[in-house]
Amino acid sequence: MDLAMAGVGSSYRVLPTSVLGLAWLQTHFETNTWELICSGAVRLQAACVDELCRDASQAGLAVCRIPAVELVGSHGS
């Protein structure tokens, strides 16, 4: 896997998981965002993630999109 998109609420964290994934992201984002990209701090809305995943897949990258997990109710008590 080269890129992971992890759901967080209504947005997705962009997580480069390989050198290829990181290098590819660097061609799509401004230089001043690279530190944020490397740390997994970049979040995108679902529509942007759709496009980013499509572009990355067409470029030959392996992409994993992990949906947000919503907890309903509480356990125990």
Key attributes of the depicted protein:
77 residues; single chain; globular; four-stranded mixed β-sheet; alpha+beta; 3 helices
What can you see in these coordinates?
The protein is of the alpha+beta class. Strand 1 and strand 2 form a beta hairpin. It contains three helices and four strands, in the order ββααβαβ. The mean pLDDT is about 85. The protein has helices spanning about 20-25, 35-40, 45-60; strands spanning about 5-10, 10-15, 45, 65. It has a four-stranded mixed beta sheet. The chain has one domain.
Our Rg estimate from Cα atoms comes to 14 Å
Q: Largest beta sheet: what is the strand line-up?
A: 3-2-1-4
How many extended strands?
4
Q: Which descriptor suits the 3D outline?
A: globular
Beta-strand share of residues: 15-25%
Overall pLDDT confidence? 86
Low-confidence stretches: none
The span between the termini is 40 Å
Output the number of helix runs.
3
Order of helices and strands: EEHHEHE
Sheet with most strands: 4 strands, mixed
Structural class: alpha+beta
- Helicity range: 25-40%
The number of distinct structural domains comes to: 1
